[in-house]
Amino acid sequence: MTDIELQKVIAGDLQEFLKQDGIMMPLGEDFADIKVYTQDLPVKQDEDDQELRNYIVVMIAEETAGEDEWNVEIHFSVNIEDRDKARSGSVNVLYLMNEIYTHYTKTGVIGRHYRMETEAHKVLNLEAPFPYYEGDLITYWKLPLPNQEGLEDLV
Question: Is 108 exposed, middle or buried (0-12, 13-18, 19+ CB in 10 A)?
């Protein structure tokens, strides 16, 4: 039960969640092709690299250990390409962040051990160049500390 396992569980769950028919952007575009990456993006192959469009990166950020559990900050870094002339891509990013947040607050515990707190933050990158829109959904997760058995023999 580590932060890395948490990240893998979230990424796998998020990929399945995004395949659901109900995940639509407010403008009616289907974003079923959103890719999910962990921690980093793949290396850019060329200027028209499709892997670097419409993605979510699940990133581990700050972590602290408490008395009996880890507090892990997980960012869902969202990037979508939206060529709509109305420039409403930020609304689509916010909508997708809302869907992710609602999914994990409704789901409760995932991977049998991990639970997301209700506290969260959203940040839009208003400097992203058209037609790309970006934002971070910052969430906080609780997970048990690793098993401490056998450590008393080392002291």
Answer: exposed
